[in-house]
Each structure stands twice: as C-alpha cells, then as structure tokens.
Design goal:
Layout (H helix, E strand, L loop, with lengths): L1 E10 L14 E9 L4 E10 L5 H12 L3 E9 L2 E2 L3 E2 L2 H8 L3 E5 L5 H11 L3 H13 L2 E5 L2 E8 L3 H11 L7 H21 L2
Parallel strand pairs: 1-4, 4-7
Antiparallel strand pairs: 1-2, 2-3, 5-6, 7-9, 8-9
Helix pairs in contact: 1-2, 3-4
Amino acid sequence: MYRNCFLGLDDGYFDIAFKRLEHKGETYLVGVVTCPWIIRDVLIDTITIDGLEGTKKALKIIENALPLYAINAVFLDGVTYAGFNIVNPFKIFNILEIPVITIFRHNLELDKILAALKKHFNDYAYRYSIIKQVYTLSHEMFIDNSRFRYTSIGLSTSRAESILKALCKFYIYPYPLHVADKTASLLGRMKFKSFDK
C-alpha cells in the first residue's frame, strides 16, 4: 500500500444548456490520488447535473482508492458539483473517518445562492443547509500570491494549514485537486464537444 497519499475530487465541464433540460445529463467526476507529488491513480465516474447523488459518487471513488492507498485527506472543490449537486464533506468524514478539506476558491454570496436554489429546487433547504454549514466554518488562507477559504473536517486548523502549504507549493490550490480539476475539465469538454457534431 502507498503511504502519505491525498485524493482530490473535482467535476468536469458541462454545457449550461443541459441545466434547462428535463433530463439533465451528466458530466465527469474525477478523483486523483497523489503520494504526495507523484500521481498514482485517476478514478473516473459520472455525476448528474443538478442531481443529488454527489456524496454517494464521491464515497464510491474514495472507497475504490482505499485498498491501494493510505489517504491522509480528501480535497473537495467546494460542496456543489455539476451545478448544484451536493457533496457533503461531513458525511464523507463520518462514514470513512478520513479528514476532508473543502476549498472555496471565491467568497460565496449565501443570499444569492439561497435565492437561486429556491427558484429551481423543491429540496432547496437541504442543499442550502450543507452549503451554508460548510462555508460558515471556513477560514481564509493566504499562500504567496494566492488566497482562498477552506473548511477542515477531521483535522485541526494548524494541521490542515500545514498540509495546504505543503501541497500548494507550486500551484494555487492543493496539487491533487489541481490535477483533478484539469483532468475533469478536459474530459468534460471532450464529452460535450462530441454533442456539437
């Protein structure tokens, strides 16, 4: 088993027009395992645009990695994936007992998010409660010229920041999340480009 590993989880690009369809379609959900700077694995699944199975799909990817890798922490790019599909970091930690660090690249305007959710989702209260709870616990962090907010579940603030500083040495965001973002975005653009033909 590989030790001292981390897993970044991000979603792929999708055409905004798919949010307006009755059957929403899917994009990619990509998990990347690094140990700590070597890319060891890429795990790929799909996720429904504006669906509600994001946490289940995230758990599946992480669980598939665990037999081979000792995962020290999981990195999430916020809690909304594929539009407003929710990945709940509290549930991931409670089930797998692996620390989860959620990165917020930008400050959230919670009032605008709530208004958008109310307009489009009957279950807006649930989705909003997770977004608000995780974001409210976030801390601001500066590393060189980059700035973001993060919420750590299962790790102390000092330990989380030590890990973030180590894995943001060459990139704006933690390395496994950076690779997951680039991989998922490329796959998503390839997928939706094929629909245009």
